[in-house]
Amino acid sequence: MGKVTLYGIDGSPPVRSVLLTLNALGLDFDYKIVNLPAKEQLKPEFLKMNPLHTVPTLDDNGFYLYDSHAINSYLVSKYGKDDSLYPKDLQKRAIVDQRLHYDSSVVTSTGTAITHPLFWENNSEIPQARIDALEGVYKNLNLFLESGDYLAGDSLTIADFHVTAAMTGFVVFLPVDASKYPKLAAWVQRIKELPYYEKANGSPSQQIIEFIKSKNFTIV
């Protein structure tokens, strides 16, 4: 059986969440950058894999999957040496799933409300209300961490990878105040200490962080 192949771009939080999962699993994989501005995602060979022409897209020896949440749960279920990253126990898995749904709905939409006008409309003014909404996300994440060192309890799961990838960019807009959100601040540091963090998320995220800073945004 050949290696799995991940198609993506470094700046994408969903792509980086999959990179974190692949590295946590210790899988040997190929990573192929998709040139979105050149519309490589619209080529027939890519559309065959993913008709929605999005990244990340996974090719597991001819089995194609897209959406980072689906990809990560699949990877752990198939390749995990154990089920710690995505538990088989229904109640433990339900908590992870709740965190994943929170990420895909609330976390993602809150971030998009800030970044879409900045990235695609060249609007460098960010309404304070959108930063306040982001602070609400921080508050809820801090609440989740009341139950353990990680977002779904005492063990690292794919939920941590998804939120970490998003948070990496969020802190440019709103740094985590350790006096207000001590558990969240400690969690951020805990994730950064993972041996594969820099390779899978720290270094790849620099592209998007520098892009955000280059916009010289103001909060109004």
UniProtKB/TrEMBL annotation:
SUPFAM superfamilies: GST C-terminal domain-like, Thioredoxin-like
InterPro entries: Glutathione-S-Trfase_C-like, Glutathione-S-Trfase_C_sf, Glutathione_S-Trfase, Glutathione_S-Trfase_N, GST_C, Thioredoxin-like_sf
Biological process terms in GO annotation: glutathione metabolic process
Membrane-traversing stretches: none
Domain GST N-terminal: 2-83
Molecular function terms, GO-annotated: glutathione transferase activity
Record-annotated GST C-terminal domain positions: 89-211
Xref: Pfam families: GST_C (PF00043), GST_N_3 (PF13417)
Assembly and oligomerization: Homodimer.
Full protein name: Glutathione S-transferase 1-1
Organism field: Drosophila kikkawai
